Amino acid sequence: MTDGIALVDILRRLETEALAAVAKASETSMLEAVRVEYLGRREGKVSSVLQGLGTLPVETRPRVGAEANRVKRSLAEALERKSGELLAGAGDTPSPVDLTLPGRRPWTGARHPVTLVVDEICAIFHDLGFTRVRGPEVENEWYNFVALNTPTDHPAADEQDTLYLEASDLLLRSHTSPVQVRTMERHEPPIRVVAPGWVYRRDSYDPTHTPVFLQVEGLAVDDGITFVDLKATLGEFARRFFGEGAKLRFRPSFFPFTEPSAEVDVKRMVTRADGVRVESDWLEIMGAGMVDPAVLANVGCDPERHTGWAFGMGPGRIAMLRYDVPDLRMFFESDMRFLAQMGAR
After folding, report:
1. Cα–Cα distance for residue pair 125/109, rounded to 1 Å
2. Cα dihedral 119/125/126/127 (nearest 10)
3. Which DSSP state fits 169?
4. Alpha carbon of residue 214 to chain centroid
5. pLDDT digits (tens, 9 = 90+) for 297-339
């Protein structure tokens, strides 16, 4: 009987403590803490007292159990009343959060502006019958230079321009032209491919150069392909990418792997600050030319039967034109304010 009386006294004392804590609670979080402390299923103080119920004599258990149920109901009712009071008074109490501030939209990612340009270029050439291909970024001298009619003593093969791997004849490709070589080795003409990818050179890091950049090259090999086909294809690309009114200009140039070769300039229609549409200046966008017969012979194509043409452009510089960006380095600085603007256009 004594143990039963002691438990009843403990339950009443806990009730008094809990009711006082409920009365002092000024926030719903404080009220929840009181509930857990006294009525929590595992570690609540009232629940802990009831764990000793099984050790009491049979005749005292009903009295203690009844008292325990009464205390639980008393605390539950007090908690509910206090919760209602706090919620009712919330409108009169200044909120710690300024509800007048505009909501913050969740940040969402966007494709990089240069990636957008690469994908658009490849999509245009896909419509013209070209397949998108890729190749390894680590190459050897054969694919990067020799097969492309560039002797190893050529200035472009010098270590000052090319990044060689230590204690190895391997190098980081300096253009995506090795993809063209690998494609011609694996497939018989007709071939029409476009090859985007990262290339690496020992260039300075300035507004118009970076040591790592994306390049897009194209290749067409078939019976009877001529320079006229090259000009027509690139002209259609310019019209679709830069818009109606875009013009191309071909200037004689030299590349070891094409003959004849040309630098290709574009003149676009742009809108001045006063809203008037005018022609831009001529801007160089790519190099191009007819595939050198020696390159065709190196990959097993019969230069007496097959001809081809190729081009190469830097989509980073194309993106500078598209988005009116003055400095190529801005594409590499990971400024989310800049990239979000470009990716959302």
Report:
1. 27
2. 120
3. S
4. 16
5. 999 999 999 999 999 999 999 998 888 888 999 999 888 888 7
